[in-house]
Amino acid sequence: MSSRTPDRTPAEPVTPPGDDRGLRADARRNRERVLRTAQRLFAAHGLGVPLDEIARRAGVGPGTVHRHFPTKEALYLAVAIDRIRRLVAEGEALAGTGDPAALFTLLSRMTASGAENAAVKSALAAAEFDLRDAAPDAAADLTHQVARLLDRARRAGVVRHDVTADEVMAIVAGAFAAIRHAGEDAGQERSAHIAGIILDGLRPR
Where is the composition biased (Basic and acidic residues) (predicted)? Predict the structure, then answer.
């Protein structure tokens, strides 16, 4: 008989990547810990971190990770979707501040997030995952938050009047590409500088 201690975590239902609705409170907490830990480890050590190591660092059993994320691709997708939803929440919070330049704050955070998760997004692209198809509601919610802040910035005269929300999203995607082109050694400071140069094009002439 094996002396290995089994994973005693009660069985948790498998949920679609990025969706924790319907989970028990303890299962939701476990899932959140796994996502936060995976984000940190991927950013620090790349995508080769084993699922079992993520489980150990998150303080849960390997079975818990595999139930929520049966494959590495499922975890990559959940990490990316979770980050979009966190940006949506940041957009909602910024909308409540009344700051007319809050659009630039959100866009800066979006570019920083994109730079941090570039490897995750590249892995999803290689696996032929499109976030807009995999999480259309989250993507639409983020665009909506950008549009809200863009409208306020326009009224205050801190952004060009001839730019649309879709164009802003395209500009952010362009900033991601520029940061990736700068290479992995660009660092946060240089990445922020590159993003700032690009986002300055949104300001009134």
Answer: 1-10
Name the nearest CA neighbour of 80 among 109, 45, 123.
123
Closest CA to 59 of 42, 39, 37, 41: 37
pLDDT of residue 42: 84
The answer to whether residue 134 is domain-embedded is: yes
- Do 18 and 138 touch, CB atoms closer than 8 A? yes
Task: Tell me how far apart the alpha carbons of residues 193 and 55 are, in angstroms, rounded to a whole number.
Answer: 35
Domain that holds residue 93: 76-202
> Is 46 inside a domain boundary?
yes
Q: Which residues of 5-29 are buried (b: 16+ CB within 10 A; e: fewer)?
A: eebeeeebeebebbebeebeeebee
Which residue, of 39, 68, 97, is where some domain finishes? 68
pTM for the complete prediction? 0.77
Nearest to 61 by CA among 51, 46, 71, 73: 51
Q: What is the pLDDT of residues 26-51, one digit of tens each?
A: 888 889 999 999 888 887 787 888 89
Counting every residue written for the chain, the total comes to 205
